[in-house]
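[READ THE FOLD]
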Amino acid sequence: MRRHDKNLGPWLEYFLDGLAHEYERVAERVETLARISSHVRPGTELNLRQEQALTDLVVAQRSRFTRAEYQQIAGVGLSTAKEDVADLVQAGVLRANRRGRSTDYVFARQADGALRPTKWTDERIEAEMRAFLEGRDRWPKAQEWRAAGKKSLYDHASANGGIKRWRHRLGY
């Protein structure tokens, strides 16, 4: 017979940690989108398709893309994609980078260095994990990450490739 434990504390802590992590991720995306939209020249209005495509690019953490990639993300034909991208460049949202025969685009504010880069880059995750793992001969259990105040690091590593990837990358 299964014993029912009425202590929901550990489950609630796990749930709230996950909720806080997701809130932080969404807040970063909203901030990025707000900065992008605030860069639109006065009198310019983006259509719903452009807004959705830009949102998808930001959520996918794409800082550089081609017209063909925009076309695929927006789900439009060649001429519509060309018009959309040209409108976004004219509106000041995108900046074109011409390299020979190909052109790619970046968010204008990012090109100007005004967009906040993500705080949890692979480099930061790796550096913090190496520091935490120093002197350990085995991979810590989830409780050990939490007890050391490294739950956020563990969560971001999970979201950026998964723990299995990081264990392999760090030799565990």
Observations:
- Residues 28-111 form a domain with the Arc Repressor Mutant, subunit A fold (CATH 1.10.10.10).
- Strands lie at 64-66, 94-99, 102-107.
- The first helix runs from residue 9 to 38.
